[in-house]
Hints:
Two copies of one chain form a homodimer. Chain A is an alpha+beta fold. Helices cover 21% and strands 42% of the residues of chain A. The first copy, chain A, has a single domain, classed as Pnp Oxidase, Chain A, CATH 2.30.110.10. The first copy, chain A, has four helices and 14 strands. Chain A is globular. Chains A and B meet through strand 1, strand 4, strand 5, helix 2 and strand 9 of A and strand 1, strand 4, strand 5, helix 2 and strand 9 of B. Strand 1 of chain A pairs antiparallel with strand 10 of chain B.
Amino acid sequence: MKKIKLGPKPLLYPMPPILVGAIVNGKPNYMTCSWNGLAGYKPPTIVIAMREVRYTMKGIKENGTFSVNIPSSGMYKETDFCGIYSGSKKDKSHIFQTFFGNLDTVPLIEECPLNLECKAVNYLNTGSHILIIGEIIETYINKDCMTDGKADAEKIDPLIYLTATMRYHRLGDFIAKAFSVGREQEDIRDNETILTYVQGRDK
Amino acid sequence: MKKIKLGPKPLLYPMPPILVGAIVNGKPNYMTCSWNGLAGYKPPTIVIAMREVRYTMKGIKENGTFSVNIPSSGMYKETDFCGIYSGSKKDKSHIFQTFFGNLDTVPLIEECPLNLECKAVNYLNTGSHILIIGEIIETYINKDCMTDGKADAEKIDPLIYLTATMRYHRLGDFIAKAFSVGREQEDIRDNETILTYVQGRDK
């Protein structure tokens, strides 16, 4: 396969276009952010990359709290809206039904099937962005998105963001069970490795 | 919609099951890691959550370098293998064809359609995990995964990892253009807001 160099580019696939919620100037505000990932399980943490100038950042820094809301694929229009317009120019408090959990500074989106209520516990400057480390203090999920006591992604039907070409997709077909199908690989590779060694020895 | 509480849980959808490459004890090693995200664009950075005890961490700390390799959906078996077995017990240097770019301490996977060559520029402890901040110094992509000069996710066909139920999926159908479809939402919501205000005034 012929590889080409693109220079240093922030490319990663797939990405979750989460809606980050905060109270800013006394109102719920929601901002779309695809640069994020899980950061630990003890305590459960998430990391979000956000520019310092963002309207949402003001609320997070003031209150030390925020929410992460996972949109389902049908919510592409509202999600994109919250990525295009700043809360400094558009009042985004009416876009969704807001509910609250433990803290009155963490607005959560009723329409999103999965919500994480977070406390900001650390910040790290990466240059253009600030990494916000959030401790997840509670998880809310639509009851009908559970299977056998576990969050079921197929029922959540998450929206997927693809950078560079800037497109939303839905989740596709099931391929295989993780932490399971790799065990088949083991035997194949062990045999191949053995064969390579044997052939090497013969030469 | 009825919501239930799960307690604090690290849940996020979708996630990219990247293969993190490093030279450990003189050999390429690859570890699957789904807890990661982009961290900035100037300079381009990525953040990866990894446990301190990981074999791969040894190589990253020693050399201050690592790679991020995006597997396509057909690579589910090899990807899962690298998530199940530690390099301390299995020699994973033969799983893929390794190539090198600028630095001889950054092994890159030929079979992965997209590769990021990274320098570790910062670390942050979140409790159970260490966040590794990597500056992307070069990007390699299969020539046939480009469309009009841009990385094309549909051609990359990335493997998708879904936590909790622990399943691999492929990318599904295109829904809409990002930074575009949200402009339609604007009009709808503006009208709704206006209607609500008018109705409110009438009452």
